[in-house]
Design a protein that fits this description.
The protein is α+β, with helices and mostly antiparallel strands and about 120 residues long. It has four helices and three strands, in the order αββααβα. It has a single domain, classed as GMP Synthetase, Chain A, domain 3 (2-Layer Sandwich). The radius of gyration is 16 Å and the shape is flat.
Amino acid sequence: MESVRQQKINKLLAKELAEIFRSEARTLFGGGFITVTTVRVSADLSLAKVYVSIMPVSGQDRNHIFKLIEEQNHVIRHKLGSIIAKQLRIVPELMFYIDDSLDYAMKIEELLKNK
């Protein structure tokens, strides 16, 4: 069970990371459309698991964009730190995961249509 503080920090991190991905999509990630779906911060606030949904643009591969996100992790964390410096003392380490729940839902829907 997450504490109220964890829930507030989850929302804060999701909002600010979404803004970073929106503003830096062209320069850091090759123009891919990246959406932050969920953020889960650990109880000691030192680690944040960030689930992202990636829509590749102009023939790019989803895995390639995800690798760019992982390579730019330190840049993303630094930008996040400059934004939330007044609200959190320590910026949590970021671990990124691909959220494929939308793909899974579309696959289930397609299977149900065919029956």
